Amino acid sequence: MYTEIIKIIEGGLKKEPTKVALYAKKLAEKLDAEGEKQLAKGIRNLLSNKAVSSLTMEQLINTAPVDQETRMSIVDLFNPALTDFEVVLPETIERKVSDFIKVVQHRDKIKQMGLTAQNTLLLYGAPGVGKTTIAKYISQKTELPLVTARLDAVISSLLGNTSKNIRKIFEYADSKPCILFLDEFDAIAKARDDKHEMGELKRVINSLLQNIDMFTQNNVLIAATNHPELLDKAIWRRFNTVIEVGQPNAEGIGKIMEMYLGNFADDFQTDKKKYEKVIHLFAKKSPSDIRSIINKTITQAIVDERNKVTAEDLLIENFQFETHGKFTSEDLIKYLNDNGVPKLQIADLLNVSIRQIRNNLKD
Question: What is the pTM for the complete model shown?
């Protein structure tokens, strides 16, 4: 594998695209053999020009704008050619996202017909429900790079610079085919009648609205917020598609578990009682939280040299997540017992005697 990487670098430095393509193909084959399917697919997508060209990404990287005061970059870039993933969404949301993708894919044809393509999408919902993932998914499906505005860097201590930073971002995103993503949108799009905001910040919002109006005539804009109630009323009118992203239902939780457990899934999924218990415990958790719990559980299984994750493993990791790791062994024993785990199994899981388990539960 190292040989292929070195040859690819040599081909790039010598501007020999044939050599780069040859060894990139060999690298993809080796990654496939080692089980790195997604990375191998990303390489093949680049070779087949399925996704955005490397030249466009290079130009975006080289011309990325920075804040005048701090010299920090005010955008992050996501290359859809290097990632391949799926999202788990309720049917209604999946349909809306799919419709938006189709509009973006046919925007040139829509414009030729004298119509205005609806290229603006506002996502709102609690943290961790998948708003950023949806934006990346749209980037992947449309094969357009995702330019994410870094609002922590955009909002300058010098308020005049904030308006300049906003203008820089929109002009930058307008220079190349891409999707502009404004995450944590409420940070710069607060209602102008908010009594706590100063006059200069209200002028920033006016500048934002003007830039949105000009940008969306020919480009794709996605925004996301955890606090839709803070947005200025005029902001809502700028978005043709608005989607509330909520917590997953039982079916969605099952799909998320299946997706992230992969080959580590034990046969507990065929045990209705155990399966429903895990689903119930994951209810009201965001996809991000569920993924974190599953990833930590798999990590522990690997450390223990096991190739399967049981329902009890997920229960233990879920308890650690909910208590932030602040619990006693007595607390964990009671939790497992309350969730239907037999005393003998608890003793085996925690490597303690059955007598200790009975004494703790008796106390």
Answer: 0.75
